[in-house]
Amino acid sequence: MNDKPYELAFPQHGDERGYLVAIEGGSDVPFEIKRIFYIYGSDEKVVRGRHANKNSQFVLINVAGSCKVRVCDTSGEERVYVLDHPRMGLYLPAKVWKDMYDFSHDSILLCLSSERYDPDEYIRDYDAFMGLCAEEKA
Ligand code: TYD
């Protein structure tokens, strides 16, 4: 399993009819895809996410519009990614804190996940995440 976030540029099939991006689990993204969900109807005032996951890995793709993703990993490294193109993905390993914000009004944020939904693997308390960071460092 990868332990750092990184950006992906998916191959884009284009011709006079437009574009098509195909994503296969295990090759275009580094996990088998067990779940997809998408976020829309957010705007520049809201912050979503605000959690880490014990097990789930994700790839986030703004298939329309744009948003920003602030990612903090257990080493304390923090980085902001701008997602603003449908062929661009952001890989997020498990155990990173993520905030999604600054959504454009037309934003549709597609999320691919390595795991089915399990609310118990979500860490929604930042202090608990900091505790996990300390454990990982020990
Ligand atoms: P939430 O985790 O708060 O969204 P975000 O990560 O954008 O802040 O999820 C919002 C609601 O959707 C919450 O009631 C849980 C539910 N949900 C599912 O039922 N399945 C899922 O796969 C996800 C991600 C959320």
Q: Name the shape in a single word.
A: globular
The poorly predicted ranges are none
Mean pLDDT: 96
Q: What compounds sit in this structure?
A: thymidine-5'-diphosphate
| Distance from first to last alpha carbon | 20 Å
Compressed to H and E, one letter per element, the order equals EEEEEEEEEEEEH
Approximate helicity band? under 10%
Largest sheet: 5 strands, antiparallel
Q: Please work out how many helical segments DSSP would assign.
A: 1
In total, the number of strands is 12
Overall SS class: mainly beta
**Strand coverage percent:** 35-45%
What does the oligomeric state look like here? single chain
Radius of gyration: 15 Å
Output the strand order for the largest sheet.
Answer: 1-9-6-11-4
List keywords for this structure.
globular, five-stranded antiparallel sheet, 138 residues, mainly beta, binds thymidine-5'-diphosphate
Summarize the structure.
By secondary structure, the protein is mostly beta strands. The protein has one helix at residues 126-137; strands spanning 6-9, 13-15, 18-20, 35-40, 47-53, 58-64, 67-73, 78-83, 88-92, 96-101, 108-113, 122-123.
